[in-house]
Amino acid sequence: MSSTVSAILSATPTPERVINGLNWTFDDLYNILPQWVKDWILNKQLGVFNFATVSLIVGGIVVLKFLASVIALLYTMFLTSKTNYITKYKAGYGAWAVVTGASQGIGREFALQLAEKKFNIFLLARNKEKLDELARDIQQAYNVEVIVHPFDFAEADDEDWDKLEDTLLANDREITILVNNVGINQPYPNPFAEEDPDLLTSIVTVNCTAQVRITRIIFPEMVRRHKGLILNVGSVAGLFPNAFLAVYSGTKAFLRNWSRALALEGEAMGVEVQHVKTYYVSTAMSKMKPTSLAPTPEAYVRKVLATGGAFEDDAPYPQHMAFTWAIDNILPEGALMQKAYELNIGIRQRALARKKRLEEAEATAAKKE
Ligand SMILES: NC(=O)c1ccc[n+]([C@@H]2O[C@H](COP(=O)([O-])OP(=O)(O)OC[C@H]3O[C@@H](n4cnc5c(N)ncnc54)[C@H](OP(=O)(O)O)[C@@H]3O)[C@@H](O)[C@H]2O)c1
Questions:
Q1: Does 101 sit in the ligand 1 pocket, CB within 6 Å?
Q2: How confident is the model over 189-216, as pLDDT tens digits?
Q3: Fewer beta carbons below 10 Å: N end or C end of the chain?
Q4: How does pLDDT run across 290-306, given as a tens digit for each residue?
Q5: Which atom of ligand 1 is nearest to 104's Cα?
Q6: How far is the centre of ligand 1, averaged over its atoms, from the C-alpha of 108 (Å)?
Q7: Which domains does the chain have, with CATH numbers?
Q8: Pocket test for ligand 1, best of 109, 121, 283, 321 (most atoms within 8 A of CB)
Q9: Which residues cross the membrane (predicted)?
């Protein structure tokens, strides 16, 4: 046993301290330090570098880091919001944007607004009727080409993926934008142990595997042409662990890490990869009415596209940006996890009560018939 470990053990007389490191006091920490460090702290040997000076230097670094984050927040919020990076991906020159989960919500809006900017649009989702209707709307309003490709990201087999690859890359199609928007969640927060295992597997398949597979088809083509943008629609639920939405939260954390690593790889190859930190948006998934915190998909996507390609990890909507800044810089993760835990329990209780009321109403109606 090393002398440090024995020092730690000898300084932890109660079992509580061994189990919960948070109960350690400053004195406990001080007592396990080697004598030369104690001497250093007490300024017995190191002259000008006394404890106060060291504290000042460390404190100064912390304050500077904090100020830098505030300046970065204000810069992204106000200075970059009016730029239009997205047109550099050859808008109006026959380039294509591929949008997954395009039949409704945020994905539908990406398709509409990218068409408005004169990209041809490749639409993917399961509901063919909704996609056909959207394709008609886009063609009438913006006179660009549209391809509808009904696709189930949860159920697709290798043959479906091969067909998708062939269609995407047919005629040497130049795809300069891929919006990895498709994502699914539990209908309401539920304990992992009670949730349908097939649904949990589908969440991983759609939110992780599908994103990797479609990107692996398109990314090398973008590298070949030295031009492209991959927009990965993430979630605040991926920024810290969310109990009762544990798998969704885990998949969005995967999306963020994968996305940021790919951004670094893509940088030298002319491909921008951007992870978009999304908080609430008023859609079928959030079941929320529009508010200042939960914008409409239209307002949300406008902000995303204004800075599309400018940052590798972005929260383009101002209210979401402020919240994610607070998560990164001032809110302790433990407190966030606890708050999400309580919030999700509340949402679950209300959802179960609503479900019960609906079932009772249906039973009453059935009796009357
Ligand atoms: N809304 C929010 O508050 C919020 C917050 C944070 C992050 N996000 C993220 O934003 C993205 C879009 O969410 P949203 O709110 O717009 O969701 P939404 O309204 O539920 O739309 C989801 C889209 O994905 C498609 N889809 C679902 N399962 C699919 C599957 N197996 N195969 C192919 N397509 C499928 C749906 O179309 P079909 O049914 O036709 O297939 C639909 O077009 C997601 O990644 C979500 O995690 C949303």
A1: yes
A2: 999 999 999 999 999 999 999 999 999 9
A3: C
A4: 999 999 999 999 999 98
A5: 43
A6: 10
A7: 1-50 (no CATH), 92-329 (3.40.50.720)
A8: 283
A9: 48-75, 229-248
